[in-house]
Amino acid sequence: MIPLRNITYWLLWIAAGTTFVVDNQVFGGPEQPSSPDLTDDHQKVAIFAGGCFWCMESPFAQLKGVVTVESGYTGGTTTDPTYENYMAGGHVEAVRIVYDSGQITYKALLDTFWRQIDPTDTGGQFVDRGSGYMPAIFYQDEDQRIQAEQSKNELAASGLFAKPPAIPILPATPFYRAEEYHQGFYKRNPLHYANYRQGSGRDAFLRKIWPQQTAASQESDQELRKRLTPLQYEVTRKNGTEPPFDNAYWNNHQEGIYVDIVSGEPLFASTDKFDSGTGWPSFTRPLVPENIVEKADRTLLTHRTEVRSKMGNTHLGHVFSDGPPPTGLRYCINSAALRFVPKEQLAREGLEHFKTLFGTKR
């Protein structure tokens, strides 16, 4: 069964065999070794399977006390499985988490795990179907087993789901580290990752079940307050407006793209930027229309159209119908909601496919 995460990747895989090229990077080659033993007596291991392992790395990696998160294969009977044959050996995609038990508990990891999956679906997860995407908890010892069972029972009693959780709780088997191109995929290929999460149905499901938790890849409000400046937080989370002519990008003429300061999703390009005379960055159109959400705004006793980002739910600004050709639109955006990525740094951030924008106006 060929996964549906990114059809471009899988076509390249078929064409090139065990070694293939994506975005000028060569992937595949020799098998990856199994995960090494722990080197710190205070470290412990947790292993969870929740469908696509790309989507399971990020939520755990941002937790305080988590040392490492790696993608791999486990639960099967064969040794040294690869991406091409792990299902045939009975393995599932999983993540192996090394954590400091003095900073974070196994229960906290379990709570995070439940909030990434559909615990009533044992035939796969979301768009990915088949045995290789079966969710499961793999316990390391009797204490983990007891905690996992208790956590599962608590989830069943919560009434969040129409059916009881059916996730198996199994003894851990050897874990085999996946190929290097799978490791940290959410960081190295943020656009592919964001598009996959959205298209797979995972994020929509999680937003419905956990209304206080938006996309699993987003930071908590407390974490955002620490990372953002007061002005950035006021604009992005409180729908604020920064001063005109006194912001980072109103007069920026460099070539590159502008991404959401919260989520990193691509929003606008310098090729569509123009001087509107307003003192705020202005664009004729979005770079990725699917990443923009427009909403009616009547807060100033007049009708305006607010612009927000889809993944980050970030307040960006407003769009008006007094812009120049070819669209006649003016996306008036707060610099505080944006981060600029110069064209020379696009490859470093996994955005190299946007380099074709530069040299000619769209």
Could you explain the architecture of this structure?
With 362 residues, this protein is α+β, with helices and mostly antiparallel strands. The protein folds into two domains: 7-209, 2-Layer Sandwich (Peptide Methionine Sulfoxide Reductase, Chain A); 226-357, Beta Complex (Metal Binding Protein, Guanine Nucleotide Exchange Factor, Chain A). It has helices at residues 7-16, 54-61, 106-114, 142-158, 185-188, 190-200, 202-209, 221-227, 230-238; strands at 19-22, 25-28, 43-49, 66-74, 92-100, 124-125, 128-129, 136-139, 169-171, 176-177, 256-260, 266-269, 273-274, 282-283, 292-297, 304-309, 315-320, 330-333, 338-342. The protein has a six-stranded mixed beta sheet with strand order 9-8-3-5-4-10, covered by helices on one side. The two termini are 39 Å apart. 39% of the residues are buried. This is Multifunctional fusion protein. Has an important function as a repair enzyme for proteins that have been inactivated by oxidation. Catalyzes the reversible oxidation-reduction of methionine sulfoxide in proteins to methionine. Keywords: Multifunctional enzyme, Oxidoreductase. GO terms for molecular function: peptide-methionine (R)-S-oxide reductase activity; peptide-methionine (S)-S-oxide reductase activity.
